[in-house]
Amino acid sequence: MAPRNRTITMTPNELDLYSQRLLTLKGEVKPSEIENRTINQDLFQVLDFLPSHFVDLLFVDPPYNMDKSFLSNGFKEMSIEDYSVWVDSWLGKLLKTLKKTASVYICGDWRSSAAIHLIARKYFKVINRITWEREKGRGATVNWKNNSEDIWFCTCSNRYTFNVESVKLKRRVLAPYRTDRGEPKDWMETDKGGFRVTHPSNIWTDLTVPFWSMPENTDHPTQKPEKLMAKIILASSNPGDLVLDPFLGSGTTSVVAKKLGRRFVGIEIDKTYCCLTEKRLELAETDSNIQGCSGGVFWERNSFQPQHSGLLNKKKFGPRGSCHTPTEQSLFESQDSK
């Protein structure tokens, strides 16, 4: 292994140790029995056992509609019609777990996004579609390079949490405007350059897919960045809320929820990935940093140096997301509810 390779791995002894912490459900459970735990089972084996109305935020990153291997399991591409039926088979049953004020985020790529939208609107109010840039990816000679993914943002009702002040983006000012007195207009002038804090949009270009020198990296082939999850969790939940991820993978949702003071439940079929989750949760007890987040804002990609140069307060995301100024829960009502 290269000296700077920080990929989290699992030894046989660790596999034995962490596997003892995993849950297996054999019947209906109360929320307190699965809170802050990792369930090592096929989702379809546990859907009927999950409690009702206990989830504030549902994040779903299902297998996309393509051939893909995941250690002991895999997924085979199917027709868009069959993929829609498959999505419906678990999404409809997850509906009972959600509170009336819950938000739902569902990931997909261009092959699966249309099916996800079609099924999501059966059960939820579809609020928006986020598109985020995957800066990695192989080049293409007979097609456009595929380096984006979608996340469908949905809610159970017109009342939902959205903490906009917690997810603003800090970026360099390329064309700075000044007032008549020569003072910065809506931006900050520093010895490291000009910066502006902007409202979040549904186009995310500031994410870095985990790679070998990042401390959050694992060998999971479709691991989401912690920064991505931090945006979603901070925007659509409050400290103490419960986050459910039914396709947990190597645990990013649970890890970020813990770092930000939320409760969590993760479901994953592969034991090795579940154990990686447990190891990452243990590491989060002593390191609550989230790369790309500091000083109460999210930073654009490739801005590591100004983040850590004293430009802003160097507070990190503490165990309760303490680097942010506390904001009250925002419950919105759309025009069609009036």
How would you briefly describe this protein structure?
With 338 residues, this protein is of the alpha/beta class.
Structural class: alpha/beta
> What gap, in angstroms, lies between the N and C termini?
60 Å
**Mean pLDDT, as a whole number?**
86
Tell me the helix content.
10-25%
Going by CATH, the homologous superfamily would be: Vaccinia Virus protein VP39
Number of structural domains: 1
Beta-strand residue percentage: 15-25%
What's the shape? globular
Count of helical segments? 9
N-to-C order of helices and strands:
HHEHEEEHEHEEEEEEHEHEHEEH
Q: Which CATH class applies here?
A: Alpha Beta
Ranges where pLDDT stays below 50 over 5 or more residues in a row are 310-338
Please tell me the CATH architecture by its name.
Answer: 3-Layer(aba) Sandwich
Spatial order of strands in the largest sheet: 1-13-12-2-5-7-6-11
**In CATH terms, what is the fold-level topology?**
Rossmann fold
CA radius of gyration is 20 Å
Extended strand count: 15
Largest pleated sheet = 8 strands, mixed
Description:
This protein is α/β, with parallel strands linked by helices and 338 residues long. 23% of the residues lie in helices and 22% in strands. The chain has one domain (12-163, 202-292): Rossmann fold. It has helices at 12-19, 31-34, 43-46, 80-94, 113-123, 226-236, 252-259, 271-284, 304-307, and strands at 37-40, 55-60, 68-70, 73-75, 98-108, 125-133, 148-155, 169-172, 188-190, 193-198, 203-204, 242-245, 263-268, 293-294, 297-299. The strands form 3 sheets. Strands 1-13-12-2-5-7-6-11 form an 8-stranded mixed beta sheet. The chain has a 5-stranded mixed beta sheet with strand order 9-10-8-15-14. The protein starts with 11 loop residues before the first helix and ends in a 31-residue tail after the last helix.
